[in-house]
Write a structure and sequence with these properties.
The chain has five helices and four strands. The chain is of the alpha+beta class. A four-stranded antiparallel sheet has the order 1-2-3-4. A hairpin with a 3-residue loop joins strand 2 and strand 3. The chain starts with a helix and ends in a 15-residue tail after the last helix.
Length: about 240
């Protein structure tokens, strides 16, 4: 019985300890040498710098400031163009996940809130990326998800329709081949009649030669001469 009471008490102390850890004030935590206020000041200072950055300074940083700074300037300009000018600072949240630390500052713009996020490598606190993203409501997120689903379904059915049309075309090809083969077979007998005409002409020429020889012999006998003295040039049939 005492062991059971001891185990229950130990479990209660563990739960209380976990609850106390989960309620730790993030402002009192040391983030590998950086305090909560340091990270917050860095985000807010970045916003103030971007607000008062002139066109010449932007052009300079875009050319020689590195990819991270160039991406940050472009994203900030896009956010201002789409959501309006900066109005005020909102919530600031620091999150550590594994080897990554993120510091997210909410910015209240004229038409929509955006979040400026610094992504650090925790063990060195080097900046991996800086993003500027719009804040969407749950309804807007659901609407976007629904649109993406509809687009995916439309694309799938479109591909299926194209595949069906291709299969139908493959069924037409054998029909066209059979039709072509039938035309070739029909044209073949007409071509075969040509040699027969040639043979008939050759036979007629042979018969005419024999007839000419007989006529020439008859004329020579009637005249009492030989066939060398005349030539039969043509025969007219009636």
């Amino acid at each position: 019985m005492k062991k059971k009471i001891f185990l229950i008490a130990a479990m209660c102390f563990m739960l209380l300890g976990l609850a106390a850890c989960s309620q730790t004030d993030p402002a009192s935590v040391d983030y590998n040498g950086y305090s909560y206020e340091d990270l917050k000041s860095n985000c807010q200072g970045t916003v103030q710098t971007l607000m008062y950055l002139g066109e010449e300074d932007k052009a300079y940083y875009l050319q020689s400031g590195g990819d991270a700074i160039a991406n940050l300037i472009n994203r900030w300009d896009e956010a201002v163009a789409e959501y309006g000018s900066f109005v005020d600072f909102g919530d600031f949240v620091v999150t550590k996940s594994g080897k990554t630390l993120t510091a997210a500052q909410t910015l209240k713009m004229e038409r929509r809130d955006v979040i400026l996020t610094y992504v650090y490598t925790y063990h060195s606190m080097q900046v991996e990326d800086i993003t500027v993203d719009a804040v969407y409501s749950i309804g807007e997120k659901m609407s976007k998800a629904l649109m993406n689903t509809i687009m995916g379904i439309v694309v799938v059915f479109g591909v299926l329709i194209i595949i069906c049309l291709l299969i139908f075309c493959f069924n037409i090809f054998p029909y066209l081949e059979k039709k072509k083969a039938g035309k070739t077979a029909a044209a073949a007998p007409a071509q075969d009649t040509a040699p027969a005409h040639i043979e008939v002409r050759e036979e007629r020429q042979t018969d005419d030669g024999e007839l000419i020889a007989v006529i020439a012999a008859a004329i020579a006998a009637a005249e009492g001469t030989s066939t060398d003295g005349f030539v039969v040039r043509s025969i007219r049939r009636r």
